[in-house]
Amino acid sequence: MTRADSAEVVVIGAGPAGASAARLLTSLGHRVTVLTRPAARPPLAESIPPSATKLLAHLGWEALVDRAGFMRSTGNTVMWGVGGGGGGGGGGQDGIRETYYADAGEGGQLGYQVDRGVLNELLLDDVRRSQCRVIDDVTVTGIHDGVVTYADGAGERTVRADWVLDCSGRGAVVGRAGWRQAIPLQRTLAIAAVWERIGSWPLPDATHTVVESHADGWAWSVPLSVTLRHVTVMIDPGLTKLGVHADLRAAYTRELSRVPGLSALTRDATLLGEPFARDASAYRCQRVCAPGVLLVGDAASFVDPLSSFGIKKALASAWLGAVVVHTCLIDAAVTEPALALFEAREAAMFDALERARVELARLALDHGTASAFWAARALPGSGDGVLPNEDLDGALLRDDPDVRTAFDELKRRQSIAFAANATFEWVQQPTVQDNRVVLESRLCLPAYPRGIRYVRSIDLAKVVDFAPKVTQVPDLYELYCRSVAPVPLADFLGVLSFLVGKRVLVFA
Question: Which of 225, 30, 217 is closest to 114 using CA atoms?
């Protein structure tokens, strides 16, 4: 096998997940081959929230996406439960919410409204300009022992890799080979269409994604320009029968009439082309990694589009997947904990979005007519959604009586003399530092058996290390800020009280 027939990493698929993983791995010095296939379906419009900006920057995409001219969005308009059972018209204004990113703690940043087809081409073109090898218009037919088999116009070929990243989305080569789990009773079909309106759309903010529910489904609309909008209706094909030879236009028109807000929005607009359907059913995989193989992005799981976090999830999955593979290639000894980290974070990301989906489904049940559609989606997920290195929320400590007692004791004392309690265990857990998975020490407590390292982004291990070296709380605070990073005094006092209250630090 020649060098051209081998690579350190083969990436299957070149959507946001595949392109991002390939770009980052190439920038880290690895030989990467990307296998792409032709787009078989019309592209959808999607949103990228401002919270994805750091991911875009880290992956090297921020300037590229900024220059692309995508519409910038200030937030969302949500009509949840408006109109109750969802006949045509009516509904009033009750339940309509304008949510702006600045109000949601996004620092006043703007999101992006993107055409997925344009975004995919933009990212892949940048990958082509790197040292990455891209093989277009192929169909991957199998993966076995690091050998990827694919077919092109000339026949069947193979490429050998140390690692394979399956980023091929819903059609995942590996994920569909026994790894995938459907979500029972939650089949979803998206029927989408593009609308054009001459002049402005009748909305308080025309840059917003608009979301609206009815008794047996929901719909959403994403603008691509001042004149174009995608409007999509979401149904359960098991409950809303379309028939074998369904007339999608008739089905689309019928379902759109059930969301009065979006129906009114399109009343004076022109439908461009015919509606098209996509499977939008949620799923996850029993496994998302094995030695030599990672499922990334939608190949690993697909969350209900209610979250609007599809692209952000793909970028996050690609970033961590690339970091894990990079680590395994340069330090094989860390392979097992690196894969454990990837699996845990993929599960936590899916579970967190599932909890948000359940809350919205329950809200729809509360404000509308009880229906099988929302009842199925209001069922809770099975995961715990806990990241192995999550930053413990300091707000939880304010109600802890041990912490409050320790804080009062610290205020009472004229000086401090601390010793670390040797009975507490510190365990090694994987985390990410500088594009590598490393092992770090975490404190094990009865309430936190997975181990914790940070509270309000303050390093517990550093506080425990510094505490015996000083006799005054202000000196301990100054030492931490000088040696690690400046932090708010209130947060630092809360962390110190937590360590004293849980007897990790004891008065000598």
Answer: 225
Angle at 349 (CA atoms; ends 344, 355), nearest 5 degrees: 120
Residue with tokens 């904990």: 337
Do residues 435 and 450 make contact, with C-beta atoms less than 8 angstroms apart? no
* Contact residues for 142 (Cβ-Cβ < 8 A; gap 6+): 148, 149, 173
Contact 5, 159 (CB under 8 A): yes
Please list, in sequence order, all residues whose beta carbon lies within 8 angstroms of the beta carbon of residue 276, skipping any fewer than 6 positions away: 41, 42, 191, 192, 193, 248
- Write the CB contacts of 87 (distance below 8 Å, at least 6 apart in sequence): 257, 258
- Residue 184: partners with Cβ closer than 8 Å, 6 or more residues away: none
Global pTM exceeds 0.85? yes
Give the whole-angstrom CA distance, residue 19 versus residue 22. 5
Looking at residue 364, its pLDDT comes to 82
Per-residue tokens: 401: 């009586």
Contact 203, 77 (CB under 8 A): yes
Cβ-based burial of 71 (10 A; exposed 0-12, middle 13-18, buried ≥19):
buried
Q: Is 96 left (phi over 0), alpha (psi -120 to 50) or beta?
A: beta
CA atoms within 13 A on the CB side of 164: 26
Ranges of H-type helices in 248-387:
248-256, 260-265, 310-330, 335-367, 372-377
pLDDT along the chain (508 residues), means of 10: 78 96 97 89 89 92 94 91 45 58 61 95 95 94 92 91 95 83 85 93 91 91 96 90 73 93 94 93 92 95 81 95 98 96 93 86 75 85 49 61 92 92 91 93 85 89 96 96 94 94 92
CA dist 451 and 233 (Å) reads 44
Q: Which residue in the block uniquely carries the two structure tokens 């059930």? A: 258
Q: How far apart are CA 507 and CA 270, in angstroms?
A: 74
Annotate 316-347 with DSSP letters as a single string: HHHHHHHHHHHHHHH-GGGHHHHHHHHHHHHH
